[in-house]
Amino acid sequence: MIERIKELEQLALKLEPNGDLRKDMLEQVHQYCEDFLHRTDTDIAFQRDYTTTTQHLQDPISEEGTDLGSLLKIYRAEVEKPGLNPASGGHLAYIPGGGLYPSALGDMIAAVTNRYAGVFFGGPGAVRMENALIRWMGELIGWKSGFAGNLASGGSIANLIGIVAARDSKNITSAAIPTAVIYGSSHQHHCVNKAINIAGLRECIFRHVPLNEHFQIIPEALEKLINADIQAGLNPFLLIANAGTTDTGAVDPLTALGNLAQKHNLWYHVDGAYGAFFILCDETKHLLQGISMADSVVMDPHKGLFLPYGLGVVLVKDSQDLFRSHQLYGNYMQDATSDPTEISPAEISPELTKHFRGMRMWLPLRLFGLAPFRAGLSEKLLLARYFHEKIQMIHGFVAGPVPQLSVVTYRYVPTKGDANDFNKRLVAATHADGRVFLSSTTIDGIFMLRFAALAFRTHLQTVNLCLQILEEKSLEVLGAGKTA
Ligand SMILES: *Cc1c(COP(=O)(O)O)cnc(C)c1O
After folding, report:
1. CB under 8 Å to 93, separation ≥6 — which residues?
2. I need a labelling partner for 386 at 20 to 30 A (CA). Which of 55, 211, 248, 340 fits?
3. How many helices (H) and strands (E) does the chain have?
4. Best probe residue, ligand 1, of 151, 216, 246 (max atoms within 8 Å of C-beta)
């Protein structure tokens, strides 16, 4: 048996490359990243041609390994190249992502040291770091104490945790579901609807509150609905507002809605996955002030703090509401006693073992300080206003409302023919071009193009290029229509 153990040990030792090998691997990865970042300055933001890539991703996982250089080649050709480059400043679609370099280093340190971020007993430092970040964000939105939160994988899971806390806090058990009423906007993110479904609340009554011309919930209309529902013997329990909708960047009147939620004893959930970090900017602070009235808030550092994908945060005003929904124990955990001063993420969220996400956020924040983050966000607000102004100066284009945050809706209005069809062809033409990446949406049946500035590499030059491309492509689509 000893012989066999030693033989296996020799084979398994391949999993632990020595210092020289590690240095060589790191150098190769470093080179790859440097090449990538240089290319990102000049490369297109969107590569629609999916066919040029070969099929090495389908190669079987075999007994023998492959050298790192070959694997990086496969990654470059088959993963990096096709589709969207979310690390590019030309990403102006959906809600753009980030990719701060020190976050990657933070991930690397987190992974090499493999700190356990689920339970304080095992990883007191990792948990303290997560809690310090939660405290910072809670204070940022105006909370003093007693709150808790979680670094989740993204806004979708963060919203789910908030909705589940709302459900349990308001005691919406199966018998209560048919008369329980949720109020929200038709522009709320579909992940919130998904969260409602996953939380077992799909049979609740959902009321779409009427929106004003800026796509904000109208408080008076909400109160009418609530009163009618109370009259009808129903149980209004949850109000969902948006601190920046995905479609148009609309911020609901958070204070007025918060007052109504308080008056009628509703749980007040604010989805700020896109917009909440604009509270850092003097220009938009006032729009977001009322967020402090929320019972639960979602904010996505992988959007508003320019982090790479994989970090969305939920904050809940009363930590007890998170414990109620998530605190359970197994016997195998009996040594992992909880600490009276630090909350363990595992006690207040669905995850036990989890990625040590704190490090990818803490490192860039501490390294750079807040000032460049504030500047980057303010720059994006101004770029959106700039785009809104300039796009209307290009022949044929009209724009939606002045952006509240950094999303602009606009479209081309042809003198004849179907406008929706024209704009569909226009967005397709920009995709085929690929130098910038734009997206569209449908608002009240009208096909609208969207411009969203949130990638930290988006600057004035990018926006000017985008305007130039839109002018070029609109003429192209116009010309194609004439010859067809
Ligand atoms: C992006 C977004 C979400 C979803 O967050 P993910 O991080 O993509 O899961 C939810 N709400 C809003 C308003 C968003 O913009």
Report:
1. 84, 437, 438, 439, 450, 452
2. 211
3. 16, 13
4. 246
What is the pLDDT confidence band of residue 336, given thresholds at 50, 70 and 90? Answer: confident
pLDDT digits (tens, 9 = 90+) for 337-362: 777 889 999 999 999 999 999 999 99
Predicted local distance difference test score (pLDDT) of residue 483: 64
| Beta carbons of 99 and 86 less than 8 angstroms apart | yes
- Identify the residue whose C-alpha is closest to ligand 1 atom 8: 155
Average pLDDT, the chain: 96
Residue 259's CB: how many other CB atoms inside 10 A? 16
**Residue-wise burial string across 469-483, b where 16 or more C-beta atoms lie within 10 A, e elsewhere:** bbbebbeebbeeeee
Unique residue bearing structure tokens 């109020």: 183
DSSP string across 412-439:
E--SSS-HHHHHHHHHHHHHHH-SSB-E
**Nearest-angstrom CA–CA distance, 277 and 274:** 8
Q: Is 300 touching ligand 1 by the criterion CB < 6 Å? A: yes
State if pTM tops 0.85.
yes
Question: Is residue 446 over pLDDT 80?
Answer: yes
Task: Evaluate: CB of 154 within 6 angstroms of ligand 1.
Answer: yes
87 pLDDT above the threshold of 60? yes
**Distance between CA 261 and CA 257 in Å, rounded?**
6
Q: Is 255 helix (H, G, I), strand (E, B) or coil?
A: helix
**CB of 453 sitting under 6 A from ligand 1:** no
User: Best of 299, 300, 314, 439 to mutate for ligand 1, by most ligand atoms within 8 A of CB?
Assistant: 300
CA distances (Å), origin 240, targets 12, 131, 162, 189: 52, 25, 10, 10
Give percent above pLDDT 90 in the chain.
93
pLDDT tens by residue, 378-414: 999 999 999 999 999 999 999 999 999 999 999 999 9
Half-sphere exposure of 292 (CA within 13 A, CB side): 12
